[in-house]
């Protein structure tokens, strides 16, 4: 990945950030490597809808953008997904199931017509990491690990701004959610559902009552609730313990954290740092994302720019 995007003026770069509940469309200015503020559109998206309905919603958001832009789009989308071919591989993850086996790239190009000659797909966590590398807290770090904490744990291992997926220095496919701890998948310990379940168990919540959502548990923790504080401590200390050996192996000099849970930074940073020290004996810098909302858009634009010469 080069810095050419920020050095080169020209037509605006169209990008999409597709998530489980929303799709964001924007135009990124190559001269500044930032989204044009007036162009950023965020629209609701039902990831449980029929495949054609999902593609229609994404395309409608894209078509709301002003038409003056390059024909190559950057598209951030969660996995499992074949990013080279544009085909969905969503199975058993509770969202976008109707896009499994669907050529998402062909479907979107058809809907966008002359507005899209090529689509360049990348993992949403990789898009966030690339954006933070070029315009945020990951900048200046040769090797850095970026995390997105929301429903689950997204991650990207960057070397010189490029995601590393196939290397013995990184977890399988370069994503920590594939790791285990105490013979359990990591997201059984660190995720929205895991924090809710741990809190419910600590307060002996009745089986017929749903536990509070994570933002409510965070508010309770900040108010001094010991069970809520422990639910956060356990989750992020566990994350630090699982991550520590890979930080050492990859020789990362920083961990950058974004995602919706990162808004509760004072509840995440201490246990995550403690977990890293306890297992790896390392004091790597743990930093909040500087561009939590814009980073995926910036990263998608860099990806589209730097891969534009490859075959569609």
Q: What topology emerges from the helices and strands here?
A:
Elements: H1 4-7, E1 13-18, E2 22-29, E3 34-35, E4 41-44, H2 51-63, E5 72-77, E6 81-82, E7 87-88, H3 104-112, E8 118-123, H4 124-135, E9 143-149, E10 153-159, E11 162-163, E12 180-181, E13 184-185, H5 192-202, H6 214-222, H7 226-250, E14 254-258, H8 265-280, E15 285-288, H9 295-306
Parallel strand pairs: 1-5, 5-8, 9-14, 14-15
Antiparallel strand pairs: 1-2, 2-3, 2-4, 6-7, 9-10, 10-11, 12-13
Helix pairs in contact: 2-3, 4-9, 5-7, 6-7, 7-8
Task: Offer a concise description of the structure.
The protein is α/β, with parallel strands linked by helices and 312 residues long. It has helices spanning 4-7, 51-63, 104-112, 124-135, 192-202, 214-222, 226-250, 265-280, 295-306, and strands at residues 13-18, 22-29, 34-35, 41-44, 72-77, 81-82, 87-88, 118-123, 143-149, 153-159, 162-163, 180-181, 184-185, 254-258, 285-288.
Say which CATH homologous superfamily of the largest domain is assigned. Answer: ATPase, nucleotide binding domain
Mean pLDDT: 91
Number of strands: 15
In the residues, how many domains can be counted? 2
Model description:
It contains nine helices and 15 strands. It is α/β, with parallel strands linked by helices and 312 residues long. The protein has two domains: 4-123, ATPase, nucleotide binding domain (Nucleotidyltransferase, domain 5, 2-Layer Sandwich); 137-288, Nucleotidyltransferase, domain 5, CATH 3.30.420. The model is unreliable at 1-9 (pLDDT under 50).
């Amino acid at each position: 990945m080069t810095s050419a995007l920020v050095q080169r003026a020209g037509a605006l770069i169209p990008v999409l950030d597709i998530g489980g509940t929303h799709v964001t469309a924007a135009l990124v200015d190559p001269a500044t490597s930032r989204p044009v503020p007036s162009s950023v559109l965020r629209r609701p998206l039902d990831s449980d809808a029929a495949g054609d309905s999902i593609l229609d919603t994404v395309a409608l958001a894209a078509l709301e953008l002003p038409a003056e832009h390059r024909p190559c789009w950057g598209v951030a989308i969660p996995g499992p997904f074949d990013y080279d071919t544009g085909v969905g591989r969503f199975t058993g993850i509770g969202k976008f199931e109707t896009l499994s086996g669907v050529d998402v790239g062909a479907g979107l190009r058809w809907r966008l017509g002359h507005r899209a000659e090529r689509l360049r797909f990348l993992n949403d966590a990789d898009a966030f990491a690339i954006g933070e590398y070029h315009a945020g807290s990951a900048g200046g770090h040769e090797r850095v690990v970026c995390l997105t904490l929301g429903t689950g744990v997204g991650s990207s291992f960057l070397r010189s701004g490029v995601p590393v997926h196939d290397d013995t220095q990184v977890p399988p496919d370069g994503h920590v959610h594939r790791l285990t701890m105490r013979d359990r998948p990591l997201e059984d310990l660190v995720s929205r559902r895991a924090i809710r379940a741990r809190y419910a168990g600590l307060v002996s919540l009745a089986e017929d009552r749903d536990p509070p959502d994570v933002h409510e548990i965070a508010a309770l923790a900040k108010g001094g609730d010991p069970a809520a504080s422990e639910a956060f401590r356990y989750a992020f200390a566990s994350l630090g313990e699982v991550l520590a050996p890979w930080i050492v192996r990859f020789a990362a000099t920083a961990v950058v954290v974004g995602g919706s849970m990162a808004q509760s930074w004072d509840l995440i940073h201490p246990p995550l740092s403690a977990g890293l020290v306890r297992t790896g004996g390392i004091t790597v810098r743990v930093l909040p994302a500087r561009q939590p909302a814009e980073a995926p858009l910036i990263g998608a634009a860099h990806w589209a720019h730097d891969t534009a010469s490859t075959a569609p």
